[in-house]
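Subject: for your reference before the review

Hello V.,

The reviewers asked for a structural picture of the protein, and I figured it would be easier to keep everything in one thread rather than splitting it across files. Below is the amino acid sequence we used in the manuscript, unchanged from the supplementary table.
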Amino acid sequence: MTEPAPAGRGLLRPALMAVIAVALVLLGGGLAVALGIGRAADPSADSVDAGFSRDMSRHHLQGVEMANLAPDRSTDPEIRQLAFDISATQTNQVGRMEGWLSLWGLPPSGGETMAWMGGTGSGHSGHAMDVGQSVLMPGMATEDELTNLRNLTGAQFDVEFLRLMIRHHQGGKEMAVYAAGHADVAAVRRLAGAIADTQTAEVTTMARMLTARGGTPLPSP
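And here is what came back from the structure prediction:
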């Protein structure tokens, strides 16, 4: 005569099988990640994600260069604080974008400037332009403008710094808005959107500061 199963054994086996099934699913998922199965391919060198990361990094680095001039050339607390905020924020963002390029196995430079924006590049009116041996993206200062800024101090520096930085932000916004709407990687879209929003707000602030100091803005890029 077969003895009856102890109470609860009938429920234990299905529960145990369920735990094993979940474990196998998790194990399979881990192997899939390790082997790259089911994972989206990394962006290519000519993708919006990579092009934006390369070009915005270079655009940002010039903004950081200009902002880092302020501590030695300006005595205006508002200008110095603005410059510090721009330098800190854009340096952090450059680190993120260059980090993505490294993770994707792509170089931090190369490719036709802004060609990722709907096929437009350095030869397209309103986009990047050739200046000597380099290509300047919209809003970027020329070497002559940078040299002039380095030679200014006090109120003259403050006004010219605001003029150049307003134009710089205006030029960079176009790239950020495009990437926010066209990049494939969610993190890239989020950063691009944040850059567009931040630079729009900072342009408003800087325009107010420039007017208060008797300056007039440069033509929009």
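For the response letter, the relevant points are probably these. The mean pLDDT is 84. The CA atoms of residues 166 and 207 lie 7 Å apart.

Happy to draft the paragraph if you're swamped.

O.
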